[in-house]
Amino acid sequence: MADSDRAPPGLLRSVSIFAELDDAAAAGLERLARRRSYAEGEVILSEADRGDALYVLVRGKVKVVLYGESGREVILSIFKEPGDFLGEMSLLDDEPRSATVMAVAPSTLVVLSRADFRTHLARHPKVAIQVMTELSRRLRRADAVIGDLALLDVLGRLAVRLRDLALAEGEPTAEGRVLRQRPSQAEIAAMIGTSRETVSRALSELARRGDVVLTGKRLLVRHRLLRRD
Q1: What are phi and psi of 145, to 5 degrees?
Q2: Bigger pLDDT: 101 vs 19
Q3: Which CA distances in Å does 215 have to 178, 202, 218?
Q4: CA-to-CA distance for 133 and 32, rounded, in angstroms?
């Protein structure tokens, strides 16, 4: 395998489920992984396909989506940080992929096959506990999203989504937390189950109330919104 096809040194140690590996184990795992590049708009994984690999983001931005019968898109997650991983569920339960993953921007990912992943689990059982912990965290997040979609109006769903994004990715300031590259209105609409036009109106309402401040791609979420239950 050429060096350009290998996982970047140290990448897998940045993945939460591999964080506690010693240097030798991490290096051994990296030798098994291979690098793949995807163009903007290219499908990385398709829903219902056989799951046979774990994917780790090296660079770029990808989204996890479901499509309704009408073609309507619902964004479940967006991954853009090196070390973000996806595709782990199918490796464990032998079921088809549960969603489609698409490159939002030109992206590079490292791929670890099911056979290599399971061999690694057998040698390092502590990783299995870390995988279950991460799956539990993602399941709780999915439950919260489903609850929000069922119980909140559009303004409430938008407020909760912006709060979650700010707490997860925002930089703390005296006024609140700042997202320097907020998602597009189309992406937000697909996250909260509405239209881009409705998101535009709801953002304007939150700004009018003083809960957020919009400046280009920059979004300030004020403390008052961060504190709401």
Answers
A1: -65, -45
A2: 101
A3: 11, 16, 5
A4: 24
The span from the CA of 142 to the CA of 54, in Å, is 20
State the Cα–Cα distance between residues 145 and 164, nearest whole angstrom: 11
Q: Please write the tens of the pLDDT for every residue from 67-92.
A: 877 777 888 889 988 989 888 777 67
Report the C-alpha gap between 28 and 20 in whole angstroms: 14
- Sequential DSSP letters for 55-114: EEEEEEEEEEEEE-TT--EEEEEEE-STT-EE-HHHHHH-PBPSSEEEEEEEEEEEEEEH
Instruction: Provide φ and ψ at 41, rounded to 5°.
Output: 90, -5
Backbone dihedral region of 40: left (phi > 0), alpha (psi from -120 to 50 degrees) or beta?
Answer: beta
CB 228 within 8 A of CB 176: no
Token pair for residue 89?
A: 């569920």
pLDDT in tens, 174-194: 999 999 888 889 999 988 888
